[in-house]
Amino acid sequence: MTVPTGRRERKKAATRQKIADTALRLFLEHGYDAVGIRDVAAEADVAVTTLFSHFASKEALVFEQDEDFEQRLTQAVTGRAANEPLIPALRREVQALVRHCTAEGAAHIWHMIDESPALRQYEESMRLRHAESLATAIAADPDLTQSTTACRTIARFVIDAYSLAREAADPETVLDEIFRMIEAAWAVTCPSGNSTGTPGP
Predict the structure, then answer these.
(1) How many other CB atoms are found less than 10 A from the CB of residue 107?
(2) pTM for this one?
(3) Backbone angles phi, psi at 52, to 5 degrees
(4) Is 11 left (phi over 0), alpha (psi -120 to 50) or beta?
(5) Tens of pLDDT along 7-65?
(6) Long-range contacts of 24-32 (CB under 8 A, 24+ apart)
(7) Which has the least CB within 10 A, 91, 116, 117, 134?
(8) How would you classify residue 104: left for phi > 0, otherwise alpha for psi between -120 and 50, otherwise beta?
């Protein structure tokens, strides 16, 4: 996520973080369904309209790093070094995201999500959106020549790798296993000399 540089941007970012932190604390203390938008706004000392200027829905309060995660995934494609293979770059970013989401204290949040149909549905729609954004970034790379279907399929695999590793007892082993399969699938779709996303001869 781009770090805010101006005073106004920093203030907005701080307000957004305060709202998200307050919401998560209330949800964990009282239960997701028991806390309303007005409760969060009052506790964070902001107007309801201010809350909605930062978050489009109650569910979005739980996934406050949604846009940041999406941006990090696409930047793993667009920001990788010249001639750097695609799949290792994606694996590195997914590994970082999994570590973030399995850090100490995260289990209580995921338990809350798993118990809420609304949050599970939101997470699923979020994963699909991230996969589409990632597929678009892959398809737009001039060094990659895969079809739209191949780009969307690989993107879905990558997002699923994150989800499966996050839920696993041994995330690193799961990522190793899944990304070997993703690498193999990607190689099958590539023309000779361009199996890893580097320019061919």
Answers:
(1) 10
(2) 0.85
(3) -70, -15
(4) alpha
(5) 888 999 999 999 999 999 999 999 999 999 999 999 999 999 999 999 999 999 999 88
(6) 24/61, 24/62, 24/64, 24/109, 27/61, 27/62, 27/112, 28/108, 28/109, 28/112, 31/112, 32/62, 32/112, 32/115, 32/116, 32/118, 32/119
(7) 117
(8) beta
